[in-house]
Amino acid sequence: MTFENLETNLIINGNNREIDAYLALNRSLPDHYNSTFMHMLDIASLMNHAGLRDQYKIVGGYSVLAHLVNNFGYEIIPNWRNSLGSSDVDIIGTEKVYKTLKQTYNVKHDDDRQSPNLPNKRTIRIRDDERCLCKGCKVDFVIDRQEEIAQNSEEAYLLSVLVRVKDPISLIKDKVYIAQSQQVHREDVMGLLALLEKKGTDSGSLVRILEHNHRSHLHGLLEAIETSVKSLKNIIYPTKEYRNNLRLHLKKYLVK
Question: Which domains does the chain have, with CATH numbers?
Answer without folding.
Answer: 4-166 (3.30.460), 174-254 (no CATH)
